[in-house]
Amino acid sequence: MNKAKLMHALAERAGLTKPQAAKTIAALFGATGVIATELRRGGKVQITGFGSFVARRRLARPGRDPRTGRTIHIPAALVPAFRAGQALRAALERASRRS
């Protein structure tokens, strides 16, 4: 599902107009949205039954330039991570048993 389909589904299920759904998605998931802002602060966003968004520190490491084959330095970085909640994992498990 892409952003446009998510917006359409949200508008239908929540009784919102498409512009309202688009604003809601941007406010939550955009680069300056609620989730990204909290992760930049070092916080964690927990949505019970769905999952948790956290910022994890990826250590610096050596890498390889695919064009030249030369070793390069990849600096440490903060990266977003998502861990599915118990209810979401259980729903997916039930769906996988049916198929």
Tell me the layout of helices and strands:
Blueprint: H1 3-14, H2 18-29, H3 34-40, E1 44-47, E2 51-58, E3 61-64, E4 71-74, E5 77-84, H4 86-98
Antiparallel strand pairs: 1-2, 2-5, 3-4
Describe this structure in words.
With 99 residues, this protein is an alpha+beta fold. It has a domain at 44-98: IHF-like DNA-binding proteins (HU Protein, Chain A). The protein contains four helices and five strands. The protein has helices at 3-14, 18-29, 34-40, 86-98; strands spanning 44-47, 51-58, 61-64, 71-74, 77-84. The longest helix has 13 residues, at 86-98. The mean pLDDT is 95.
List keywords for this structure.
alpha+beta; two-stranded antiparallel sheet; 4 helices; three-stranded antiparallel beta sheet; HU Protein, Chain A; 44% helix; 99 residues
- Assign a percent range to the helix content: 40-55%
Q: Briefly note the CATH topology name of the domain at 44-98.
A: HU Protein, Chain A
Report the portion of residues in β strands.
25-35%
Q: What Rg, in angstroms, do the CA atoms define? A: 18 Å
Largest sheet, in brief, is: 3 strands, antiparallel
CATH architecture of the domain at 44-98: Irregular
- Please tell me what the overall shape is: extended
Model regions low in confidence, pLDDT < 50 over at least 5 residues: none
What is the count of β-strands? 5
Average pLDDT figure: 95
Summary of the model, kept short:
The protein is an alpha+beta fold and 99 residues long. The protein has four helices and five strands.
